[in-house]
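Narrative summary of target 7.
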Amino acid sequence: MICKYTTVIKYGEMNKNILSLILVLVTLNACNLATKTAKPEDFVGQWLLTFEDLPSFGDVKAKLNISYKDSILTGYLFDMKNGKTPFTELKMLDYQLMAKYNWGGKDVRFKINLVDETTNQIEGKFMWLFDVKGHRLVKSRKSKKK
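Modeled conformation, tokenized:
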């Protein structure tokens, strides 16, 4: 019996499609590896954050200060309106830093991750909706061993 329907795929087209798919997968994997290796120590220091396009506030800038001692992350935000706001919770979730704090009587949170391992740029989300971007101001000094 001869099949009525046949699909002819040109060998060259199939190779182009497979190569394109492989290139996309390799690129995604490389981007994924760059951000998924972050450790708590990578976030230590002072950062300038911008919470973008917040309703009723617009762009809000704040300084982020992170410390890591005895396997415990601590830190706070500082902005001109509210002053120093300590975090009620600060922890690593996979490769991201998650911070919770009280802002204007409401419990809020944001998650940030390093853009890549070689830069001092971070990005993430505030309350899952709004973009957070920032850059490192000062990296914490490590004690030198003599």
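The first strand starts at residue 45 and ends at 54.
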